Amino acid sequence: MSKIIKSISILSILILTAGNLLAAGQKLTMSGSTTVLPIAQKAAEEFMNEHPDVDISVRGGGSGVGVAAIMDGTVDIGNASRAAKAKEIATARGKGVSMVGTVVAKDGICIIVNKANSINSISLETAKKIYTGEISKWSEAGGSGGTIVIISRDTASGTFEVFNEKVLKGSKVREDAMMLASNQAILTSVSSTPGAIGYIGLGYVTDEVKPLVVNGVTASKETVISGKYPVSRPLYMYTNGAPKGLAKQFLDYLLSPTGQKLVEEVGFIAVK
Amino acid sequence: MTIKKNKKEKLLEILFLFFAFLSNILLVGIIIILFKESLPLFKEIKVLDFLLGRHWYPTYDPPEFGILPLILGSLWVTIGSLLVAVPLGLGAAIYISEIASTNLKEILKPAVEVLAGIPSVVLGFFGMVVIAPFLQNVFKLPTGLNALNASILLGIMAIPTITSISEDCISAVPRGFKEASYALGANRWETMIKVTVPAAFSGISSAVILGMGRAIGETMTVLMVAGGAAIIPHSFLQPVRTMTATIAAEMGETAIGSDHYFALFGIAVVLFILTLIFNIIADLVAQRFRKRIV
Questions:
Q1: Could you name the CATH architecture of B50-293?
Q2: pLDDT of residue A182
Q3: Average per-residue pLDDT for chain B
Q4: Does any CB of chain B come closer than 8 Å to the CB of residue A161?
């Protein structure tokens, strides 16, 4: 019996010491949007290389999680692929938290079709008609492939929110549209389905699918930054109050030319 | 010495009592949180409108929180999975317990149980890249991500549960039943189908119901392959959206404390009640089975 107690106490002392040793460096925690995740991870890796005493932990969860984590004070930085909603800002204020967002990158959303489709460009109007169900045949939209198979992101995702705001303008997606849970799932489905249309972040587009020219503008870094490309969005990192301490150091690093190069490396568009 | 030992035993007893209660406390805690977090929604909408509403548009203005398509989607793929799993699982169970040689049995039973260990995300991936294109070609469908695809995969996942428990129940049928049947001149097939399987019927039903519980609660696979359209299903070749997939896909992106967030907890409550009902039925059936055999 006493042996067990002894070993347990030794073990707990060991664990506590190890914990203290690990916590000796500076810590920065962040969580939130899976869209921002690759940027945050890449930047965190490079930042930790330059500052070996800093420990950054990055988690996903979604924009809602990022915003909520800032409200609850469980992280230093909350990532979001959308601006915080008025309701969220109000709730945060109720908790004594002032949410400050820093735009760290921009993302364009590409409308994509199967490579076999003859269509090359689309207007926002037509895209809206397709997604709301007013048009259901490719022949009516200027393409080929028979019946249009509509693929959308889940209505809760940040990507959908931007698509909803810029393309649907609040109209409802037809009910039988497929709702997939990730950019990758949409890419796979569109590339294997002749009549499909979908939308994904610019960084996810590969040559397995055909990105469409929207309102006469090709989605590219230049057109997203200049604001000419109509379906684009800023990506945010939220802090409680203006960023300070390690969070400020990290954001400054991410917004520096080196940091912005990392943003481009993972497929997004630099803001500076 | 004996007193010391008794003390030690008493201590261990208390420790295990604590463990036993811990899981119950956790369960109660989870139930309380589920209900507490879903209640605020019902200040906004009626329970019936929630359960029987036909439109799930949680992020629109004004939002619509009708989960009927989701409930039906879940039931639809669950029934589909049973259509796949019951014949295959039961057939395997009958073969393993009644026909296979002892050597073969020792290989087959663990092999079926290994199937239960495949992570659902792996099955989901398999469904996306193998089954979906296959279904699309065979049925000339616009998309292979549909209820049929999900049913097949959930069926595969439910097979180990159904086979394993059914096999135990069939093996537990007293020898006397079979011997009496042979004595009356029945052949092996007749004995199996008319005596052994009916004798194990309640055990088999409880196996099926447990398999059903497994299928209705499965999340990752259906999120990946069911297609996700929140429509009232009419055919297995349509995409559907289940309750589990909706919670998994939307919980991460919703604002905490919003009606949408409460609605997702509401779905969780409905799912919890459905699974609870399945488990209670399985338990009742299994109890009847035990009584009959003894």
A1: Orthogonal Bundle (1.10)
A2: 83
A3: 89
A4: yes
